[in-house]
Amino acid sequence: MEQPKDDIIAAVYRVIQERKANPSESSYTASLMAKGVDKILKKIG
User: Fold this and answer.
1) Which residues constitute the domain of residue 37?
2) In this structure, is residue 3 part of a structural domain?
3) pLDDT at position 5, please?
4) 19 domain residue, yes or no
5) Rounded-to-integer distance, Cα 31 and Cα 26, Å
6) Global model pTM greater than 0.85
7) Considering the domain boundaries, does residue 32 fall inside one?
8) What's the pLDDT score for residue 1?
9) Long-range contacts of 10-13 (CB under 8 A, 24+ apart)
């Protein structure tokens, strides 16, 4: 059974928030956030 898109987006959001609240040196997401919004926008935009 396929997971609804809203559930996937919510799961990704939870992971991002967790990485933001508890950054680790091995987390790519945390390293992007540490570099700032411009770096994040370049990556996703």
Assistant:
1) 8-42
2) no
3) 83
4) yes
5) 8
6) no
7) yes
8) 64
9) none
Closest to 44 measured CA to CA, from 16, 21, 18, 19? 16
- Which residue reads 């609804």 in tokens? 4
How many CB atoms neighbour CB 32 within 10 A? 17
Give the pLDDT score at 11: 95
Question: In the chain, how many domains are there?
Answer: 1
pLDDT one digit per residue (tens) for the chain, 45 residues = 677 888 999 999 999 999 999 999 999 999 999 999 999 999 988
Contact of 15 with 29, CB cutoff 8 Å: yes
Please say whether the beta carbons of 30 and 19 come within 8 A: yes
Dihedral sign for Cα 11, 16, 20, 24, please.
positive
Residue 38 lies in a domain: yes
